[in-house]
Amino acid sequence: MIIKLCYKEYPAKISLAACKSFYEQTGKDLNYTLMCYLDACRDSEGLETSTRLTRLFNVESFDTIAKLFACVINAKDQSIPLAEIEDAMFRVGWMISNEDDGMSNPWPLVVTALANDVSGYYAELDKKKATT
Predict the structure, then answer these.
(1) Which end of the chain has the lower number of beta carbons within 10 A, N or C?
(2) Residue 96 near residue 49, CB atoms below 8 Å
(3) How far apart are CA 83 and CA 27, in angstroms?
(4) Residue 45 gets which letter from DSSP?
(5) Which run of H or of E encompasses 42?
(6) pLDDT number for residue 31
(7) How many CB atoms lie within 10 A of CB 43?
(8) Are the beta carbons of 121 and 1 closer than 8 angstroms?
(9) Rounded to 5 degrees, what are φ and ψ at 11?
(10) pLDDT digits over 74-118, tens only?
(11) Are the C-beta atoms of 6 and 91 separated by less than 8 Å?
């Protein structure tokens, strides 16, 4: 998994350690939080861009998502500080840019993309379970 945030790519990984760390820091479940973004994205389909983005901003706080990003990024690279992630989120945290590369999307869209990646990861695990 790759998190594209403020013109930088951060390798990320969903793991039990990431889930536990997120819970310890926030008291929230990482997978549930990501599912909430998938639901909000689905529920706001067809709405104006600004309305849809507003709904995604309202799912979780900036602080909670910064910690979520840090947990899944640190599962791959522990040298990335939370302050770097927060700064990147702040810099892209307004509206969708005209760039089509996905490198400057507001953080609610980035966490939604991560949620889709995690959903795909779990779907692949389910396929492996079924064949073994």
Answers:
(1) C
(2) yes
(3) 20
(4) T
(5) helix 30-43
(6) 97
(7) 11
(8) yes
(9) -65, 140
(10) 999 999 999 999 999 999 877 777 766 778 899 999 999 999 999
(11) yes
Calpha distance 63→68 (Å, rounded): 9
pTM (two decimals):
0.91
In the chain, the amino acid numbered 47 is L
Q: Rounded to an integer, what distance in angstroms lies between the CA atom of residue 45 and that of residue 75?
A: 31
The total number of structural domains in the chain stands at: 1
In the numeric block, the tokens 């990984």 are attached to 13
Structure tokens, 35:
């599912």
- CA-wise closest residue to 19 among 30, 3, 33: 30
pLDDT digits (tens, 9 = 90+) for 20-60: 999 999 999 999 999 999 999 999 999 998 899 999 999 99
> What's the rounded Cα separation, in Å, for the pair 92 and 12?
19
> By residue range, what is the domain housing residue 120?
2-131
The position carrying tokens 């067809």 is: 46
